[in-house]
Amino acid sequence: MKRILITGGAGFVGSHLCERLLNEGNEVICLDNYFTGSKDNIEHLMDHHYFELVRHDIINPYMIEVDEIYNMACPASPVHYQYNPIKTIKTSVMGAINMLGLAKRVGAKILQASTSEVYGDPSVHPQPESYWGNVNPIGLRSCYDEGKRCAETLFMDYHTQNEVAIKIIRIFNTYGPRMHPKDGRVVSNFIMQALKGDDITIFGEGTQTRSFQYVDDLVEGTIRMMNSRDGFVGPVNIGNPVEFTMLELAELVIELTNSKSKIIHLPLPQDDPMQRKPVIDLAYKELNGWEPKIQLREGLGKTINYFDGLIKSNKA
Ligand code: NAD
Ligand code: UDP
Nucleotidyltransferase among the record's keywords (predicted)? Predict the structure, then answer.
């Protein structure tokens, strides 16, 4: 049995990670400041003997004896991370310093949830880990993109300078049950709009692309990365390489929900990347043949059921 700290454990991805690691027989400490996460996401784990919940903000140090740390804390949707940009960058940078300091003191292995956003609006397509990215350092998205880039630098420097055992994953757009219904991300927006019969809001022409990964595939890749061979630190892309335009996504959501919603077009936000698709050869090679198993149609079905349940129980 390992003792595992998960920062951001009450969020969308973190809650799935808590559940999976508990089910595998570990002791899990979930640390969260509830900015975008919620106790609802982990309510079903509260009675578990080996689950602990701590309210804490990772911009402040935290002391605990653990074997592993999954550093997932950070708002992930543009609406949420742009709400308080200074806080967002503090969470990424000061949070990384605090968690790396803890890992160094107690000898824990630590994994960083980085992001495809480190590639910015990429001029190389699809994106391999060797691509350095095209990020505007002073734009609307930079608090998130540059914060995550700096966190990667900190992880590498703690590894080379202090021999901290690190792992870095770059997560591409992920969706699934327990996404926040109002987080403004495209999958949650389209599904909520379709279920309520509201207009589906496509930003710009809808020709921009994203590759959508179902949360279970991400959790599998994340745990495999934590357990990967010593000396392999990444960064490694974890995402689904099947690429869709936003128009195709809107049409699929309308079909799967049987919705009468109309598609409307709104202005494209500043610095919105035009395309994004991971190269996952490194993950396949280093993580025992890891590749996504759940394709969009199936994953959207599960996510639609979740949001439908929220609406019916007046929780959305
Ligand atoms: P989320 O917003 O649902 O979860 C983030 C969690 O971190 C929330 O529970 C929030 O309350 C908590 N948190 C935020 N700031 C904190 C702080 N200062 N101290 C303590 N807790 C704090 O987002 P998510 O989609 O679950 O993302 C989880 C991680 O994965 C994030 O680091 C995100 O950057 C990364 N990521 C996610 C995606 C995606 O598509 N979901 C893509 C790339 C990277
Ligand atoms: N988007 C959209 N309609 C929405 C929300 C988002 O067309 O209601 C677009 C957005 O402009 C972007 C893509 O969908 O091009 C993915 O946006 P999201 O916020 O989900 O993720 P990110 O831009 O961080 O990849």
Answer: no
Catalytic residue, chosen from 62, 70, 119, 144, is: 144
What spacing in Å lies between the alpha carbon of 74 and ligand 1's midpoint?
Answer: 4
The percentage of the chain sitting over the pLDDT mark of 90, rounded to a whole number, equals 94
Q: 3-class secondary structure for 47-88?
A: CCCCEEEEECCCCCCCCCCCCEEEECCCCCCHHHHCCCHHHH
The CATH superfamily assigned to 3-175+213-240+277-293 is NAD(P)-binding Rossmann-like Domain (3.40.50.720)
pLDDT digits (tens, 9 = 90+) for 168-225: 999 999 999 999 999 899 999 999 999 999 999 999 999 999 999 999 999 999 999 9
C-alpha to C-alpha distance for 32 and 72, rounded to whole angstroms: 10
- How long a stretch of residues is the chain? 316
The whole-number pLDDT of residue 195 equals: 97
What spacing in Å lies between the alpha carbon of 13 and ligand 2's midpoint? 18
174 within ligand 2 shell (Cβ under 6 A): no
Q: Using a 6 Å cutoff on CB, does residue 35 contact ligand 1?
A: yes
pTM: 0.96
Q: What is the Cα–Cα distance from 84 to 261, expressed in whole angstroms? A: 32
Q: Which residues contact 115 (CB under 8 A, 6 or more apart)?
A: 76, 144, 145, 148, 170, 171, 172
pLDDT of residue 100: 98
Q: What is the pLDDT of residues 252-267, one digit of tens each?
A: 999 999 999 999 999 9
131 is catalytic: no
Q: CB of 269 closer than 6 A to ligand 2?
A: yes
Mean pLDDT over residues 51-58, rounded? 98
Does ligand 1 lie within 6 Å of residue 34's CB atom?
Answer: yes
